Give the backbone structure.
Amino acid sequence: MRVYLDNNATTIVDPQVKNAMEPFISQYYGNPNSLHAFASDTHIDLNNGLEKIYAGIHAPKQDSVIVTSCATESNNWVLKSIYFEYILSGRKNHIIISEVEHPSIIATARFLESLGAKITYLPINSEGLIETQTLIDNLTDKTALVSIMWANNETGAIFPVEEMATICKEKGVLFHTDAVQAIGKIKIDMKDNDIDYLTFSAHKFHGPKGVGGLFMRKGKELTPLFHGGEQMGGYRSGTLNVPGIVGMGKAMELAVDAIDFDMPDVKELRDHLEDELLKIKDTFVVTPRKKRTDNTMLISFRGVEGESMLWDLNKAGIAASTGSACASVDLESNPVMEAIGAEADLAHTAIRFSLSRFTTKEEIDYTIGVVNEAVTRLREISSSYAYTPKNHNSQL
């Protein structure tokens, strides 16, 4: 059996999305900005795709949703534009992010730090959550931007971004959220919050890879990241990815529906997997269930190296991960485990299981059996497990 439980890294393209995209790959292939019939053939479906993206996040029509290649591009755009507009000009000098942001935020912040920006990295607590008071304590009159992800890619922890955005608005500070792990899992209504910028990638909610977006409030426009051949109202250069936009729109529509119709089933499967794995002694899960997305679990088995567990899982046909796919080649200890202050012998043991609406009960039951066998085997050959104090199973 082959089981895919790495949906926070990427998701299968929904067959309905694939069908919607196919005509625009080789049949209706005109550049939508050209002045001939090949171009106009794409217009209706292109506009319908954009409408579905707006509807999926309840974006007001006066605000902008700019299609990009992915959230990594969108995240870079937000931070670097704020640097050019506020910090390089000397108006402000400070950006706040969390210490567990996606690498596209962390690496960009470090780059801006090398150029003279002051960066504050907000810590998370022992449950893997950011406390609002921590943000309040670090805001200054020089803060230009706060960037906090809506849901963490490793733990699924949901951060209070709407409350934080309101606090920032009252202080005259711009607020951005990386909503990559929130679309399709959390209801998002951009008409009813104070978030200035929101970014996302289609491949995280059963859309195609290579297409994403940036929501931008009216009056909070950003300096373009790319120049030359500007499109989408002059905010981004490059020919529009028509198949990607059509696919992302359809995927967004399906993902929003899935919150009410499919996500309860996903949660039930995730909870079943978690309940069974927590029966293994010396096993820990980060972040309480009610405070994370319904599809995600970050679990540690004391005495079991994460990479060793992945080896056994992969041999059995099961895909999982030890953290962000964008940083997986580093094989370093899990940054969330380090951030919550986990003991050294647990920092390398975290495994992330992330489900989707295509996950089945049979796949979960198979995974439970494989993990139990793997933990037994790996602990038997562990050089450290026999010497570590044994603890009862719990939340970290």
